[in-house]
Each structure stands twice: as C-alpha cells, then as structure tokens.
Design a protein that fits this description.
Strands 1, 2, 3, 4, 5, 6, 7, 8, 9, 10 and 11 form an eleven-stranded mixed sheet that branches. This protein starts with a strand and ends in a 23-residue tail after the last strand. A hairpin with a 3-residue loop joins strand 1 and strand 2. It has three helices and eleven strands.
C-alpha cells in the first residue's frame, strides 16, 4: 500500500486524509486502518524502534473519507480529546443528498440511539435510556439532476449522525443503502469530511485544514465541490 497522504505534521499532531472505505482504526474486519498505516509509515520513515505512539482523537465511519487529526503524544491526545468534549473542534462535511431540499438552510436536532448488535442508529425520544443529542446545521450549495450538494457543520459527533438525520428528513445521502430506505440510490457513499479546525494542543494556535471530495467520481463530479462559501439563496 502507498503511504497515507499527510496534510500537516509536527512533533505533536499529524493531520492526514482518510480514504473512503478504509477503517479509521483497527476493527474486526482486520483490514488495514489509517491509524495502523500511519504508525507503520512513521516507524519506517523515522527508523523508530519498538511501537509508535499515535493517539486516536476522533473517528470517521469506514465509508466516509476526509480529513482527520491524530496525536503523536499522550499529552496532545488528552488536550485534543478535551477540545472534542468542549466543542472547540469544528467539523464540516460535504455530502450529496438525494432530492431537492425544501429548506435550503436549517439546524436539525434529534436524539439518537445505537443498536450495538445491528450497528444501526435510529432516532428516538429524548426520554429513551441511552439517547444522545445530535445536532447539525446544513446549507444547500448547489442542486442538479434531482441531487443536492450540501455543506454540513456538526455540533455533535454521533455515529452515523449525518446519514441518519438527513434520511429522517427524507433526503438520504447518495449511496446510503443502510438508511436510504425507498429513496436510496446505489453508488459510493457521497459523504466527505472536508474541513477540520482545532486549537494546537501545545502552541495554542488555531489550525484549520480543508480538503476536497474526490471530484472525479460520481456524484461529486456533477458539482463544484470547491465551494467553501454558501451562496445566498
């Protein structure tokens, strides 16, 4: 395998691009994860003896590609994890949804619960035991051929959150056969983590990284995926 694509690296953090359909970390599939690939790359590149420390700060679902940050020290891992809890992490995704959304911009709040046996997430009342608040804001960037390019800012980081919340509105993510229901369209899951911002755990500098979805692939190639500013609608 080729080395992972590194976007930024210093002595404390490493920011990399996770390919779609690659696990963020090792799982029961035993497939090579981005975490293991980065450890292997660092070990070989820097001639490090023994195990390489690399802290997993957050995850992307396997079919979701995009930008991720890993911690190179336990101190950095702890501080970045605190940022995750406090909401200092800013995560933005772009997705292609099936349909033309009635509301072009809105904040969506639900309560989600995960079925550990089926690995399915579903919307439930707040009063259900184990229910977790899920909040996001979306803006429609472009519409074409019955599909919508949408920018999503996450305020919470729940498993399958974007897929479940948008499908609940009636506009599933393109390629999402798990949650798409009768509106599902087969294809590569069109969900990509395009922007990540956080405060450097040591220097305290605010860092922001942006990547584009694979614009040579469907359905991304239908749209101008370099859109970073939402047009007035």
């Amino acid at each position: 395998m080729e080395n992972p694509i590194i976007i930024y690296e210093d002595n404390h953090v490493i920011v990399a691009l996770k390919p779609q359909n690659m696990p963020s970390c090792d799982d029961e599939s035993k497939d090579l994860s981005l975490l293991s690939a980065l450890k292997q790359m660092i070990k070989e590149r820097d001639n490090k003896p023994g195990n390489v420390y690399l802290g997993l700060v957050h995850r992307l679902d396997r079919p979701t590609g995009g930008v991720m940050v890993f911690a190179k020290t336990s101190k950095a891992a702890g501080r970045l994890s605190e940022q995750m809890k406090s909401g200092d992490f800013e995560k933005v995704y772009h997705t292609v949804l099936v349909g033309t959304l009635d509301k072009k911009s809105q904040t969506v709040t639900n309560y989600l619960k995960k079925n550990a046996i089926t690995n399915m997430v579903y919307i439930c009342p707040q009063t259900v035991e184990g229910a977790k608040k899920a909040e996001l804001h979306y803006d429609v960037c472009e519409e074409k051929n019955g599909l919508s390019l949408v920018k999503v800012k996450l305020y919470t980081g729940r498993s399958h959150q974007i897929r479940v919340q948008m499908a609940n509105l009636g506009y599933p993510v393109y390629g999402d056969m798990r949650y798409g229901g009768e509106n599902a369209v087969k294809g590569n899951l069109a969900l990509f983590a395009t922007s990540l911002s956080f405060t450097h755990p040591v220097t305290k500098e605010r860092l922001s990284f942006k990547v584009e979805p694979p614009k040579e692939l469907s359905p991304w190639k239908l749209f101008d995926t370099s859109v970073t500013v939402v047009p007035s609608l």
